[in-house]
């Protein structure tokens, strides 16, 4: 194959063709989307295009049944005359196209719910996970065979078993349709009995399952996602002493099995669909950075190595850098000044309206999943009432919990605007402050009002550039009509005006949502303590820089001089924050446990093993290991001694902060929890079970009994000593694993602090920016070790220096296409930083040789402090 020709293949072309192939099936169909598919389809072809193609769109949430009343009020989008008061005129050909990014057995409820709503006679199910993903699922043996002839569990462990399961699944869908039509006036539950009773002369339903690996979306320039594993976050399970080939999916903790399995197979689908490397894995050069990245690279290369198919199509030689988010948790802990980080946080964080004055407001939302609150792009409840009339002005300011068009590509609505403004709205806001965002939105609204020929004096309405002026301009769209049609048809003027206003609201819904999102962000800023936490974080980061500077300048000091002469550590400062009321919040307002723990995550992540206390233990440990290595004739090179298998479990015992500071943190946290009586709300602090049974024994226990037992345990009173021990294990243990991970798995990029000096102190430098800068340096970087499948035997997660040794070390930029994928999430601030860094570097004459390289940044989600908290302490 000609590699030059392959480099001319557009990375998105194959994926875009797949959407074009299904447009005919979407036309005049009912469309069902689960949450991942909803977001990803909106990223690529835009929900507005689907609206024009289809009869209606439904968003399935958490396997929730969709009843007729709910879908009429919330999920139905009126596009044709076939709808009247939310009731469909039954057609001869009524088709449902359902997109499921999950396993088939997890999308059964929403599909059956839609079959109950309408008389569907043609059902097409697009499944985002391949047959191989279903067959290899570690819990597939728990699936039930639903035929009447057998009620025993049937394991899906080969293709024949899967085909049997698929046939049974299709049969259930058809049976559900027949039952609904046989007893249309009954409200009985959707049981699976009376199988033969419904095999009669009712109209047949055609149900087909197809595979559509929805593996790629590009919500922003140079940024892509793999949606089927968007909730993944690297688990601490992988920070241990196992060799790669000793990790077994069915032996992993069950709470991480599903995400790990989806990650492996969504990456395999992504590589295959986008033609990245050959089918056997050749020219796919993976550079894993971190423990989970190494495991993922192992699974990908091992699976691809078993492929015996011949390469038929052109493909992209690619360099894929996989980076564990756990290596740097400072960025997602920060409450940055970036407008998009603020807007995304405020629109994805659940709020309880009746708890606005409750100091423990955030504590009640710790374990809520803030990533599942999706709504349709046209929120009928927000803009229309049941009679299709626009509702009161105040509802214009209401904001969906998730702003769908933040990641959307709905630019087709604005074809009537000048080309200079015809772009994805949020692309232009990602680098702006909130003040700049308000100015941009105001300019766009003024242009729209002018283009729509609405007769109004804008200068008297808009006023100064603030959120109130934006609301005033939105109300002009809501109330004003175009003068293009003159004053004819006065008899029907009111109806025409209402319809025209509704069309304006629909056409520019993305701008209206943006205004609502900005207003909500400004209103909730004080409730989230965004500005106060931003100030605290700046002080802590500056202090961490001074601490590092002191460590470098005072190496000759005596051992006991640290605590006597230095300023309070950043952990000690956080303890002071726990005991101090919030600035401007009143004497009785204190920061929540969530906010305090995120500050601790930032502190431990940026500190790492850089303190003199840590280095002192590291030096002692290194000397011991080097001596042991010589005695045992170790094959490992001496420079990597700290990553040896003998030292891995010892790293956790190295102190990050002083014992007194860490004990004070535990005491402050336990005092706060007991004082506010919130222990039962903090589910991550649940007591460990007294029975250390095997996983197989746990599977045999009844789920209700387990939940009741856990509930009783939580209701039992807890004293401070017991709580302290739980906090040491559940909180301090997690924080220590965050601190040691860079020392354990990186060779060169171990510090997140750069610069320094007596006047300014050092500053935070993100790991991602350091890695990008190192890409362009003309030297061998040990952290960029190409994963070599021939070196798997004996390869440890803590990288050993013999791995992949060759005459010439391969570098990521040896390929012209480079993908950097962050496993666990990325922030808008980091995305902007990397994009700017690439643009600046490629424009420099110093790096002219890389001017034709293509760089894409990928991750599975946009990360916020609340999401990070839920991932670490769930």
UniProtKB/TrEMBL annotation:
Entry superkingdom: Eukaryota
Segments of skewed composition (Basic and acidic residues): 704-716
Compositionally biased intervals (Acidic residues): 693-703
Region (Disordered) location: 623-644, 689-716
GO terms of biological process kind: vesicle-mediated transport
PANTHER family listed in its UniProt record: VESICLE PROTEIN SORTING-ASSOCIATED
Sequence similarity: Belongs to the STXBP/unc-18/SEC1 family.
Protein name in the entry: Sec1-like family protein
Organism of provenance: Dictyostelium firmibasis
């Amino acid at each position: 194959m000609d590699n030059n020709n392959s480099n001319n293949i557009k990375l998105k072309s194959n994926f875009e063709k797949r959407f074009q192939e299904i447009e005919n099936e979407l036309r005049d169909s009912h469309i069902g989307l689960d949450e991942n598919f909803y977001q990803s389809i909106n990223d690529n072809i835009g929900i507005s295009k689907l609206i024009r193609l289809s009869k209606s769109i439904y968003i399935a949430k958490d396997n929730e049944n969709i009843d007729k009343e709910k879908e009429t009020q919330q999920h139905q989008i009126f596009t044709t005359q076939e709808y009247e008061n939310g009731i469909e005129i039954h057609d001869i050909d009524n088709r449902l196209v359902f997109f499921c990014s999950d396993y088939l057995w997890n999308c059964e409820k929403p599909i059956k719910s839609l079959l109950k709503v309408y008389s569907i006679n043609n059902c097409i199910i697009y499944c985002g996970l391949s047959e191989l993903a279903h067959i290899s699922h570690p819990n597939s043996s728990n699936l039930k065979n639903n035929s009447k002839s057998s009620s025993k569990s049937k394991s899906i462990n080969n293709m024949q078993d899967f085909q049997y399961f698929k046939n049974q699944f299709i049969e259930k869908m058809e049976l559900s349709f027949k039952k609904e039509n046989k007893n249309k006036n009954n409200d009985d539950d959707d049981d699976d009995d009376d199988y033969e009773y419904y095999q009669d002369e009712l109209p047949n339903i055609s149900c087909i399952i197809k595979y559509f690996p929805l593996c790629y979306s590009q919500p922003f320039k140079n940024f892509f996602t793999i949606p089927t594993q968007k909730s993944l976050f690297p688990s601490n399970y992988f920070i241990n002493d196992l060799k790669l080939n000793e990790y077994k999916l069915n032996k992993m903790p069950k709470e991480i099995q599903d995400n790990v399995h989806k990650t492996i197979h969504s990456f395999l689908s992504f590589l295959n669909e986008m033609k990245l490397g050959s089918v056997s894995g050749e020219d796919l050069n993976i550079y894993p950075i971190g423990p989970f990245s190494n495991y993922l690279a192992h699974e990908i290369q091992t699976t691809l190595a078993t492929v015996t198919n011949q390469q038929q199509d052109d493909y992209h030689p690619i360099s894929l850098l996989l980076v564990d988010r756990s290596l740097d948790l400072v960025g997602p802990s920060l409450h940055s000044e970036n407008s998009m980080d603020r807007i995304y946080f405020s629109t994805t964080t659940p709020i309880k309206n009746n708890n606005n004055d409750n100091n423990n407001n955030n504590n009640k939302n710790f374990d809520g999943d803030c990533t599942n609150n999706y709504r349709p792009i046209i929120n009928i409840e927000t803009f229309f009432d049941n009679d299709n009339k626009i509702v009161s002005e105040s509802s214009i300011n209401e904001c969906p919990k998730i702003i769908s068009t933040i990641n959307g590509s709905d630019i087709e609505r604005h074809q009537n605007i000048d080309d200079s403004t015809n772009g994805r709205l949020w692309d232009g806001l990602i680098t702006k402050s909130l003040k700049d965002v308000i100015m941009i939105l105001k300019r766009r609204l003024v242009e729209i009002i002018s283009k729509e020929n609405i007769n109004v004096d804008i200068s008297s309405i808009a006023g100064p550039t603030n959120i109130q002026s934006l609301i005033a301009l939105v109300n002009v769209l809501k109330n004003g009509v175009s003068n293009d049609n003159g004053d004819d048809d006065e008899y029907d003027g009111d109806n025409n005006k209402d319809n025209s206003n509704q069309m304006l609201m629909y056409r520019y819904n993305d701008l209206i949502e943006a205004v609502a999102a900005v207003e909500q962000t400004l209103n909730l800023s004080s409730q989230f303590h965004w500005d106060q936490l931003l100030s605290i974080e700046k002080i802590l980061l500056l202090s961490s820089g001074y601490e590092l500077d002191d460590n470098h300048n005072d190496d000759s000091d005596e051992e006991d001089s640290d605590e006597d002469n230095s300023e309070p550590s950043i952990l000690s400062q956080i303890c002071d924050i726990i005991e101090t009321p919030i600035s401007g919040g009143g004497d009785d307002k204190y920061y929540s446990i969530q906010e305090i723990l995120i500050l601790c995550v930032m502190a431990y992540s940026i500190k790492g093993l850089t303190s003199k206390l840590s280095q002192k233990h590291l030096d002692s440990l290194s000397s011991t290991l080097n001596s042991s290595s010589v005695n045992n004739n170790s094959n490992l090179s001496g420079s990597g001694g700290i990553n040896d298998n003998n030292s891995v479990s010892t790293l956790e015992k190295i102190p990050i902060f002083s014992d007194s500071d860490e004990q004070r943190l535990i005491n402050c946290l336990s005092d706060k929890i007991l004082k506010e009586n919130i222990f039962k709300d903090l589910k991550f602090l649940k007591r460990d079970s007294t029975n250390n049974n095997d996983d197989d024994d746990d599977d045999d226990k009844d789920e209700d009994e387990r939940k009741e037992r856990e509930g009783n345990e939580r209701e039992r009173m807890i004293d401070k000593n017991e709580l302290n021990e739980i906090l040491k294990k559940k909180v301090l243990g997690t924080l220590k694993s965050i601190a040691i991970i860079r020392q354990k798995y990186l060779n060169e990029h171990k510090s997140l602090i750069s610069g320094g000096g007596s006047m300014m102190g050092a500053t935070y430098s993100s790991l991602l920016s350091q890695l990008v800068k190192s890409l362009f340096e003309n030297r061998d970087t040990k952290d960029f070790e190409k994963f070599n499948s021939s070196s798997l035997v004996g390869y440890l997660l803590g990288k050993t220096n013999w791995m992949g040794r060759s005459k010439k070390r391969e570098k990521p930029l040896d390929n012209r296409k480079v993908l950097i994928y962050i496993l666990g999430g990325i922030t808008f601030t980091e995305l902007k930083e990397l994009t700017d860094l690439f643009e600046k570097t490629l424009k420099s004459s110093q790096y002219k040789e890389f001017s034709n390289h293509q760089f894409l940044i990928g991750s599975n989600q946009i990360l916020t402090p609340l999401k990070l908290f839920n991932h670490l302490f769930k």
